[in-house]
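Bug #2210: token dump truncated for Oxidoreductase?
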Amino acid sequence: MSENKNFALITGATSGIGYELAKLFARDGYNLVIVARHADELESKVKEFRQQGVEVVAIAKDLFNRDEAFALCDEVSSRGIQVDVLVNNAGQGVYGLFKDTDVERELAIVDLNIASTIILTKHFVKEMIARNSGRILNLASIASTVPGPWQSVYHGTKAFVLSFTEGIRSELKDTDITITALLPGVTDTGFFAKADMLDSKAIQDEDDMADPADVAKDGYEALMAGKDKVVSGFKNKMQVAMSNILPDPVLAEQTKKQQEPAK
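Reproduced locally. Full output below:
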């Protein structure tokens, strides 16, 4: 059992960037609260992480549902777990022209990407303030910096996450609590399949996709250094730098060409 009593809570912890982040926390001796929708996927990860000698608590919650986000907070409290690091990683998108996409699915994505992030951050930041210690990592995206034709709702939610993170960071600047935004680009995860986005030009070249382990490492190091945000990958850094210069209508047209169907 780990001598480190610190717990990191990670949503979306069974795959992709969340899974790679959980591995980094376990490697450094953090106990884990891993959260995902499917109990069977969580159980296989519990066995894996426990082999590193840390305590692992698995909680199955569907964070597309706001009530389950509140229930997650209640369950962590009822177990007497102090969350020292919160990682709001769970997120999803939907691909297509806004006129064609399903509004109920988009509202569910807003609840996952925005509402659940607000609920968990509100709950745990209050506890962190009470003891004046803690760290939070929020998964934004380079999508947060540009308008997003073909993924307008997803880009909008990630713009919220970035702005939300920066706003709270300013509020907390006189405390010992840090909040960091991680901005990956196109990463080799299950995101694109879940978003029905496999036909998009943006993901046709698999060589251009980042390794989720590399993205997680960038986020983990920025979190531990207390940075405000980190753009993962040189190409993405260049893209964000350009987005600070070019007018939004130009960026929107560029993004539309990048994300439209390849056929």
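Output looks complete on our side. The radius of gyration is 18 Å. Marking as cannot-reproduce; reopen if the truncation happens again.
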